[in-house]
Amino acid sequence: MKLHQMRYIREVARQNLNVSTAAEALHTSQPGVSKQIQLLEQELGIQIFQRSGKRLTGITEPGQIVLDMAEQILREAENIKRVGEDFTKVNEGSLSIATTHTQARYRLPPAIKGFVERYPNIRLHIHQGNPSQVTDMVVSGEADIGIATEAIANHPDLVALPCYIWNRCIVAPHGHPILSDKPLTLKKLATYPMVTYDLGFAGSNTVRMVFEKQGVTPNIVLTAIDSDVIKTYVEMGLGVGLLAKMAFDPERDKGLSMLDASNLFPDSTTYLGVRKDAYLRTYMYDFIEFIAPHLNRKAVNIALQA
Amino acid sequence: MKLHQMRYIREVARQNLNVSTAAEALHTSQPGVSKQIQLLEQELGIQIFQRSGKRLTGITEPGQIVLDMAEQILREAENIKRVGEDFTKVNEGSLSIATTHTQARYRLPPAIKGFVERYPNIRLHIHQGNPSQVTDMVVSGEADIGIATEAIANHPDLVALPCYIWNRCIVAPHGHPILSDKPLTLKKLATYPMVTYDLGFAGSNTVRMVFEKQGVTPNIVLTAIDSDVIKTYVEMGLGVGLLAKMAFDPERDKGLSMLDASNLFPDSTTYLGVRKDAYLRTYMYDFIEFIAPHLNRKAVNIALQA
DNA sequence: CAACGTTACGCTCTTCGTAAAGATG
DNA sequence: CATCTTTACGAAGAGCGTAACGTTG
Asked: Which residues of chain A have pLDDT under 70?
C-alpha cells in the first residue's frame, strides 16, 4: 500500500471515475494510474471500482469505505507536510478563507490589514459564497478557515468558534417616515416594503422566526446576498433596508439614515469554522486572533481538543 | 513522503530511539531505517529526532507532532487493510479482547462459546488486566475490544457501549450469622470482616462511596482482583465476601451461601470500548452482539458516529 | 470511430542489504 | 572498546512514460 495509490483512487473518484482526466490532474500518465489502482485492488483483494468491461462505472461498497479512509490518510499526510513548513518557512505559505459577502466586506478588512502587515509573504485567498458553500469549502479542505453566521456550527467535521456577536439596523433614505415614527416596532416595520438578505444568509432565519412568532408578516420586496446591493436599492427608494449594523458606514452611506434595530431582534453570532483534524499553521492561529482577539492559540486548541 | 517512513519513525520512537532494534522489529536493515528517516526529515525540512552527534537522544517538538500524525496515518492504513480482509476473508482473522478477570471468567464464556462455533477459524486472544490496562490496550490498538466496568468510559479516543447492568451479592460460609440476621443493612455488613475487589475494579468506587455516604466504615480485611480468590478466602472463614452476583455459581460454590445485596448498592454498568476510528471487522460486530444482543451492527455504528 | 482503459516494454530512479567507516560513552 | 549510527556501493525492484492493443457506446 502506497500513499500514491491513495492519491490516485481519490482523484479518480473526484473526476467522476475518469482515469484519463485524473492522470492529467495528477501530472502523470494514464497507464500509471490504471496500474497502481489495479495493484492496490490486488493487494487488498477487493474491487474498489465497479467496471463494465474496461470502463469504470461505479464505486463498490468496500471501495467507498476505502476511499473515505484514503481521504483521511491524505489529509493527515497533508498535515505532516504543514508541520514541516510551519517550523521552517514560518513566513511563507497560503491562507484560504471562505466567507460571505458581509463578513468579507465589512468585518474582515481590519483583520486582513493587520495580517498582511505581519505576514507580507503569505498568499491570501478569499472565497466568497453562501454559508453552506463556505461550510463545504472548509470541510473539503479547499479553505483553511470559514467565517459565517449560518450553517458552519452544525457540521460534525468542523469545530465552530464563536467569533463575535452582532445585531441589525434599519436603513432608509433621509426623511423616510420610518425614521421619525418612534419607537420602532415590528408591526410598524412590516408596513413598509423591505429589502434584506437572502434566505440562508446572515441570520435571516432568526429574522423570519421573530416575525413569525409575533404574527407579523413582513413585506419583503427584494432579497440580496450582499449588503451593498441592499443599500443601493434602498437608496433608490424601493423600501427600507434591514441589514447587519456593521454593514452601515456613516462615512460612505451618506444618502441613508440608520436606525438601530437590536431591540427588535435577538443577537446573532458569527462563527469561525475549521476542520477538527486540520493542522493549523502558526499564521492561521494569528489570523484567527486578528479577527477575534479572545481566540488565541490556547483557546483555539482547547476547542479543537473537545 | 512514504508510508514506510511513517512505520520507521514510529518504531524508532517505540524502541526508545534505538534505530538498530527498530530495524530488527521491522525485519529490515538498520542503515535502511536510518536513511529513510533522514530522507523524511530532509523532505519536511525539520528534525524529528534530536541527536547528540550520531546518537538519537530525544524527540523534537515538531517531531512529536509528526509522530502523532504518523500514528494516525498508520492506524488508518491498517483499517484499509482490514476492509480488504473483511470482504475477502470473512472467516479468517484475529480478535483481541482485553478484559478483567471477573468478566473473562463469569460473563464472557457463553459469548465466546457462541463466537467460536460461528467463527472457528478466527484466532482469539484474551488479555487480562486491570481496567486502566484494558483501556490502554484498546487505545494503543493492541486489543480490538475492551470490556470493563471502570475507566473505559472516560477516554476521548474510545467509544463506550453500555453492555449490561449488574449488582452485587454477599457470600459467606453456610451457617454464618450474617445469613440469618435479616434484613441485611450496610451497618450490619460493616460489623463483619469483609473480602472484596481491589480499588479500581468492578465498581469498587461505587461501593466505597455508598459506605462513605452512609457514614459507615467497612472492615475490609482483604482485597483481590479476582472473584475466585475472594471466594476462596471467604470459604476459609476470613470474612464475608462482597462480589458481583454473576460471580457466584451455586453449582460450583457449594461451600458458600449467597445473599442478594442489590438493595444496598446502586447498579453498575459494564462497558465495552472500541477505538472511535477503528474499522471493525464483521466478526467483531458479531462478537459484540454475542455479548450484548442489543448492540447489533446498526446500534454500534450509531454510537461510533456520535 | 472516437474516447477510454489495459497491456507491453524499456528506461530511470529508489530502495535495500552488505561492508566499511565514524562517533559515542 | 563495545555499541550504535552514518556513509558507500552494487544489485534488485518499483514506478513511469511511450506505444500499441482492446473495448465500449
From this structure: 203
pLDDT mean over B235-257: 86
User: Which candidate from A69, A76, A88 shows the least CB-CB separation from B69?
Assistant: A76
pLDDT at position A252 is 84
Q: What is the pLDDT of residue A274?
A: 93
Digit-coded pLDDT (tens) for B109-155: 888 888 889 998 888 898 888 888 899 999 988 899 999 887 787 88
CA distances to B109, B175, B247, B254, B255 from B251, rounded to whole Å, are 16, 18, 12, 6, 10
Name residue, grid cell 453492555: B163
For residues B104 and B98, give the distance between their C-alpha atoms in angstroms, rounded to a whole number: 9
Cell numbers standing for residue B67? 509522530
For chain A, the residues whose C-beta falls within 8 A of a C-beta of chain B are 1-3, 43-46, 62, 65-66, 69-70, 72-73, 76-77, 79-81, 83-89, 156, 279, 305
CB contact under 8 Å between B65 and A83, yes or no, is yes
- Mutation choice for B interface testing from A46, A48, A50, A80 by most B CBs within 10 A: A80
pTM for the complete prediction? 0.80
